[in-house]
Amino acid sequence: MTLDDRLKALLTPLGAENKRMFGGTCFLIGGNMAIGTLKDGLIVRVGKEAHAAAMKRPGARVFDMTGRPMEGFISVDGQAVTSEAALKVWVDLAVSFVKTLPPKTAKPAKKAPKRMR
C-alpha cells in the first residue's frame, strides 16, 4: 500500500479531499491543506504554534521548497512513518490544526482573456 493510499484510508472518513500539489497528493479539509505526500515522505501542516514541538519528532525537518522555510509546515522522512501508529500521529497533528481554520469558500472560475484578432 502506498503512502497516498494509507493517507486516503485515514482521511477520507474525515471528509478530506485529495488534490495534486507540491508534486504529490495533498489532502484538504474544508478547503485547507492538511497533509500530503512529498517525494517519499510527507508535508504536514501543524501551524506556527506547534511547529517547534513537531520539529522534535522523529523524521521531522524544515519544509523548504523555495529557499524560504515555511513555518507551520513540516517535512517528514518516509522512513519515520512506516508504521500506521507513526503515520496516524502526523495525521492527527495536521487534522487538529486544520480544524481550527475557517473553511475556504470556492473561488469563482477565472474567465479566459479575450483574444485580439
Write up what this structure looks like:
With 117 residues, the protein is α+β, with helices and mostly antiparallel strands. It has one domain (3-98): Alpha-Beta Complex (Aspartate Aminotransferase, domain 1), CATH 3.90.1150.30. Helices cover 27% and strands 26% of the residues. It is built from 3 helices and 6 strands; from the N terminus they run αββββαββα. The chain has helices at 3-11, 48-55, 84-98; strands at 17-21, 24-29, 32-38, 41-45, 60-62, 73-76. A 6-stranded antiparallel beta sheet has the order 1-2-3-4-6-5. Helix 1 packs across helix 3. The longest helix is centred in the last third of the chain and has 15 residues, at 84-98. The chain is globular, with a radius of gyration of 16 Å. The model has no long low-confidence stretch (mean pLDDT 91).
CATH overall fold name:
Aspartate Aminotransferase, domain 1
The major β-sheet equals: 6 strands, antiparallel
Please write the CATH class name: Alpha Beta
What coarse outline follows from CA principal-axis ratios?
A: globular
Q: H/E element string? A: HEEEEHEEH
User: Which strand-content bin applies to the residues?
Assistant: 25-35%
Question: Biggest sheet, strands in spatial order?
Answer: 1-2-3-4-6-5
Number of strands: 6
Low-confidence stretches: none
The pLDDT mean sits at 91
Q: How many domains, in number, for the residues?
A: 1
Distance between the termini: 53 Å
Count of helical regions: 3
Proper CATH architecture:
Alpha-Beta Complex
Helix share bin:
25-40%
The assigned structural class equals alpha+beta
Radius of gyration, taken over Cα atoms and rounded to an integer in Å:
16 Å
